[in-house]
Amino acid sequence: MNVLKVGLHNRLLKEIGDLADRAGLRVYVVGGYVRDELLGKAVKDIDIVVVGNGVEFAKTVARAWGKANLVVYEKFGTAMLLLDDHKIEFVGARAESYSRKSRKPAVKEASLEEDLSRRDFTINSIAASLRGKDFGNIVDPFDGRKDLRKGVIRTPLEPEKTFDDDPLRIIRAMRFASQLSFDVEPSVLKAARKMAPRLEIVSQERISDEFLKIMGSTKPSVGLQLMFDAGVMKIVFPDVFALAGVEQRKEYHHKDVFLHTMKVVDNVAEKSESLWLRFAALLHDIAKPKTKAFKEDVGWTFHGHEEAGARMVKPIFRRMKFPMEHVPFVEKLVRLHLRPMALVDDLVTDSAVRRLMFEAGDEIDDLMILCRADITSKNPKMVEQVRRNYENVARKMKEVEEKDHLRHWQPPVKGEEIMKVCGIEPGRAVGRLKQRITDAVLDGVIPNDHDAALKYLLEIKDEILSTMSEIREKHAE
Ligand code: ATP
Ligand code: MG
User: Fold this and answer.
1) Ligand 1 pocket test, candidate residues 90, 119, 163, 199, most atoms within 8 A of CB
2) Most buried one in 90, 454, 457, 469, CB count within 10 A?
3) Which DSSP category does 109 fall into?
């Protein structure tokens, strides 16, 4: 990778270079774009550094392209342009810290080399010229190309100083290691361990952004384990940290709940890109430390950890500032993660299968991915056996689904009809009647159709309404 030039594939870069020539400016593409092109990856975001005034040049580009959507962050001396699905950021070469959101973003003008030295890692400190006369020529004062070749994360300056300037870089190191399957150089890891407590001053949003990128990487456990080893997990995600050292029976799972969880997350990541399914894997046993108890004849037990865990999801998402709209999904998967296992028994009834499918709804396929991922036993015979059991469960589900079409199921009689038929107002009785109809369908007492449900409603309504009014009267006495 000791190339001196990089093929800059995005045609916009040539246009930006022409505009730079016309303005007589030295302009470079830098950071993630150059790194990913050298690695042969597709890149969308483009970071441009201008030796001089980055915002002025951004305005020149926007004007030339007839774009009115340039966003200027005066205070930070940066500007952003969205074009098709590309995000182009412009910045003037600077001598101070590189984190846009750090407290005192100083924008002292500097040389390109000085600018590159303030960036986080050598692999992100490579620039390529956009000028016509040396288009694509690489500027790489910290030998980032060597680190790209060797697969290591190293800082341009002394690691402690780099982390002290912006402690978020500690997690960024682990994020890049996870995304690129790179190693973090030992001196960088050592500094990370030492500086980890400084993460306290970093905003939760910035930490969470990086954490989500670790969860989105091919093998998330790489970044998670690094976070754990350097004492970062303890600070930024104490609930996950607390899984370590919690012992469990090892026939089905790995002995330590943290290590088990790492494996489950990786297993899910192999099967699904869904970030939130990966989160469900990360949190599926989150209440094990809380619910742990030792029973003489069985060993460690964790009764109710799935329900207790589901209840922890919302507070965790709130505290970590993860997007709240994904809470119901993660909660549901954590709550149900043991249920398919209960259907393994040959004697299991259709009704139990129907109930789970009804409760899981559209999430049933994701639930099955999580359950299969949850088998992390080291005993291959055991793994094989449990996998086969799950195939049986999946087959039963398919049969029931084909018969009853429960996937997007709604009880066949709606609340409004119940009120009309029974002559009642909205209230608890409506919910109660609806629940009875739902139960009857799920238990196979009546078929899944409107007429049967209506007939059933007429049969049960008097009894239910009279017991409910008796209860009311008793309370009134
Ligand atoms: P991604 O693929 O995630 O976008 P990236 O390398 O482009 O990776 P960004 O966060 O978009 O990362 O930042 C763009 C560039 O800005 C980085 O390559 C790096 O040179 C620099 N940079 C970003 N954040 C920091 C930081 N906290 N400290 C130092 N340099 C940073
Ligand atoms: Mg980027």
Assistant:
1) 119
2) 90
3) B
Longest dimension (CA), the chain: 95
Identify whether residues 390 and 422 lie together within a single domain. no
Q: Are strands 71-73 and 78-83 parallel, antiparallel or unpaired?
A: antiparallel
Q: Give how many domains the chain has, as a whole number.
A: 3
Say whether both 375 and 429 belong to one domain: no
Tell whether 128 and 102 lie within a shared domain.
yes
Closest ligand to Cα 176: 1
**For the segment 266-276, what is each residue's pLDDT rounded down to a tens digit?**
999 999 999 99
Q: Is residue 81 part of a domain?
A: yes
Ligand nearest to the CA of 119: 1
Give the containing element (helix H, strand E) for 414: none
List the domain range (segments joined by +) for residue 308.
Answer: 269-409
- C-alpha torsion 399→405→409→412, nearest 10: -120
Tell me if 31 CB under 6 Å of ligand 1: yes
119 lines ligand 1 (CB under 6 A): yes
Chosen domain end from 385, 409, 433: 409
Predicted confidence (pLDDT) per residue in 189-248, tens digit? 999 999 999 999 999 999 999 999 999 999 999 999 999 999 999 999 999 999 998 877
Is 0.70 surpassed by the pTM of this model? yes
Q: What is the mean pLDDT of the chain?
A: 90
Within a domain: 387: yes
